[in-house]
Amino acid sequence: MNLNKFSKETLTIVFYVVYIAISYLFYLLFPGDAKTPNFGKLMMFLLVPIAFAYACVQIYKHFNSDKSYFKCLLIHTVAWFSIVTFLTNLKQ
User: Across residues 39-58, what is the average pLDDT?
Assistant: First the structure.
C-alpha cells in the first residue's frame, strides 16, 4: 500500500479515526473488572502520548522541510481537545 497518494491531512484524520474505532471495539469486546483494566480505556489513555509523538514528528517536518503541516497541527489540536473532554467525562 502506497501512502504517498494520500494527503498528510487525510492520514492524520485516518490515524485518529482508526485508533479511536479500535479503542471502542476493544472497549466492547474486552470488558474489564476490578482486577483487570478495560483495554479500550487503556488504549484511550495511551492515545495521548502516541498522538503527542506523532504531532512532534509533524512539527519537526513542518520546520525542517518545505511542506506546511499547519493543517495537520490543527487536526491534532482539535483531536486532543476532544480526547481530553472524553477522558474527563469518562472519569465521572
Answer: 88
Cβ–Cβ under 8 Å, residues 19 and 39? no
- Rounded to two decimals, the pTM is 0.79
DSSP classification of residue 4:
G
Q: What are phi and psi of 26, to 5 degrees?
A: -65, -35
pLDDT at 13: 93
Looking at every residue in the chain, the average pLDDT score rounds to 85
With a CB cutoff of 8 Å and minimum separation 6, the contacts of 14 are 6
Compute CA 41 distance to the chain's CA centroid, rounded to the nearest angstrom. Answer: 13
Per the structure block, which three cell numbers stand in for 41?
A: 480505556
Q: How remote is the C-alpha of 52 from its chain's centroid?
A: 8
Tell me the three cell numbers of residue 17: 479515526
